[in-house]
Amino acid sequence: MLKYLALSSCALLAAVSAQLGDVFEWKELSFAWPDEDAKTAALKTRDYVPENNLPLGLGRWKDKLFVTVPRWKAGVAASLNYIPLNATDKSPALVPYPSWKANRIPGKGEAPADDQIVSVFRINVDVCDRLWVMETGLADILGNPNQVIPPSIAIFDLNTDKLLKRYNLGENDIKGDDSFFANIIVDVTKDACDKAFAYIPDLGGYGIVVYSLAEDKSWRVKHNYFHFDPLKGDMTVGGVNFQWTDGVFGIALGPLNENGYRTAYFHPLASCTEFSVSTQILRNESLATDPQSFELYKVEGGKGDVGQSSSSAFDEKTNVLFMTQLQRDAIACWNPRTKLQPDTFPLVTQDHEKLIFTNDISIDAERNLWVLSDRMPVFIYRELDPNQVNYRILRMTVDEAIKGTACEA
Question: Which residues pair with 38 in a beta bridge?
């Protein structure tokens, strides 16, 4: 009987996983160079070292799929890029955004450009046709770190590809050398584009920075739930064992409530617990920074012993939250109408080859769930094999993903 149940379980996972379609894949990333001479020169000067370019974040707008390539190591050609979705090549070249010039690191004594892009982890495409970029400003992170420009929010008009605004995080937003900002979540409605808020988790300094576009102002929020769980920092992914202390990282916003605010669901990366708080708290500076607001945060539940998640995304139509499952090579879902626990947190897809380190997920305007996997622990702690596929972008519809699961409530 146990053997039969195991086989049945594997068959179910295989059937679910079949819904996840391969879109793009690479052994090593390539870029749309202006010409072959430019590529040759970059290779010669080591401004482009192919094996040092790892894709990490993604987001779709119309016919563009944006892909970020953080400057973990020297030799990253361009950090913010897009792929035309009509690309016929299975391993297309990345097109730097907004331009090659913007992605070039300024030389010594050279002032950075207004639309300068240094090193980007995650991005957010909002309903107002804007691209929000959390710019770390830090190059060669794993080698000789160089803070080229301050951590900042850059906002681009996707219809014109022009920079609308850049906001440098303030001194009070940054917790010394501990802070690291690798994600950005935008809270906005289409009828109030100028009243947007951005939530920026600080995974190293254990806080969240809130930015108000209307006030052009930011503030830092602290809470115990933003810290990592010391019992959940030991992970094994892709055959690599490592220990991380990453705090609050994934944030996803639920639909508008009757009071006009949303529920922000969040988790530290090194944790298997999901938490939440109303954006009514975060968006009010005096309330957000008041220690008395501690009790207004909620523990939603646990995801199981190996339930660590990087990215998360919320589908408002079905009221379902999707989360990456790093140690399970999978994506899981949860419907907040139920209490979060392992039996209400099913896998919607799992693949022990294609989904090694599901680094980012995103839901587009057509309710497609996009997934980026990149074997990042191997990239950081060992060495990727250039003869095998290392990076993948996959896709499924939200409705297909939850069909027949506990999330379909």
Answer: none
